[in-house]
Amino acid sequence: MSDLPKCPKCSSEYTYEDGDNFVCPECAHEWPKVAAEAVEETKVFKDAFGTLLVDGDTVTVIKDLKIKGSSSVVKVGTKVKNIRLVDGDHDIDCKIDGIGAMQLKTEFVKKV
Question: What PANTHER family does this protein's entry cite (predicted)?
Answer without folding.
Answer: PROTEIN YJDM (PTHR30305:SF3), PROTEIN YJDM-RELATED (PTHR30305)
